[in-house]
Amino acid sequence: MSKKRRLKPKVKIGLLVILCLCCILGVFSWLHINQDTQSDEPVETVATLCIDPGHGGYDAGTIGADGSYEKDINLEIALAVGEEIEKEEPRIKIIYTRDSDEITWPENEEEDLKARVQFAQENKADYYLSIHMNSNEDPGAFGYESYVRQNDATSQAIAENIAEELDESGWEYNRGILFVEEYPLYVVSEQTIPSLLFEAGYMSNYQECTDLQQSKNQKVIAKAIAKSYIHQILKDKNLD
């Protein structure tokens, strides 16, 4: 009679370990494939936000107390706002009038402003946000403010929300909401969608100009704006 071979205890344990590892690897592979499949699915767009970094190219905008250019800070904050919204709420589509220092319109102020409004219209934007920096003959002036149309309750609500978020974060100070009927701004006045021009601070103030160039402060401003737009858009779409 032939003897049946019995596996030694160490061999049994080894096989069990190998079997467990195979199972774990199989689960991870399934999860990875499943995630890849899900990521390929199109994300539903609930709204399109056009972000306009003010100035650019030939137009430097305000020259800061330290010689820096407004157009550069506008772009940094604008891109940060877009990135934050895309990360937190990918259903909101972000488009930019410019995403670098290059511009696609004539080097003419009138044509420049028209091109920004037209860009939003042609791309069927639902909301419009223009990022700018301020300047004043008084080097002590500082703070942020928003410009909207009087009949644009949506943008007024967004501006109020931005102020609340910034106040909580410690970024000072809120100079309030101004209406373009009194302070005409073409890119807001000529829009028919909710439109807001946000002046993040005064570059004529040396300290604030320096603060505005710091990445951590730009992120604070960008997050406040992003949260406010996400909140309002989801509310408008009954998705909050």
UniProtKB/TrEMBL annotation:
<dbReference type="GO" id="GO:0009253">
    <property type="term" value="P:peptidoglycan catabolic process"/>
</dbReference>
<dbReference type="Pfam" id="PF01520">
    <property type="entry name" value="Amidase_3"/>
</dbReference>
<dbReference type="InterPro" id="IPR002508">
    <property type="entry name" value="MurNAc-LAA_cat"/>
</dbReference>
<dbReference type="InterPro" id="IPR050695">
    <property type="entry name" value="N-acetylmuramoyl_amidase_3"/>
</dbReference>
<dbReference type="GO" id="GO:0030288">
    <property type="term" value="C:outer membrane-bounded periplasmic space"/>
</dbReference>
<feature type="domain" description="MurNAc-LAA">
    <location>
        <begin position="117"/>
        <end position="230"/>
    </location>
</feature>
<keyword id="KW-0378">Hydrolase</keyword>
<protein>
    <submittedName>
        <fullName>Cell wall hydrolase/autolysin</fullName>
        <ecNumber>3.5.1.28</ecNumber>
    </submittedName>
</protein>
<dbReference type="GO" id="GO:0008745">
    <property type="term" value="F:N-acetylmuramoyl-L-alanine amidase activity"/>
</dbReference>
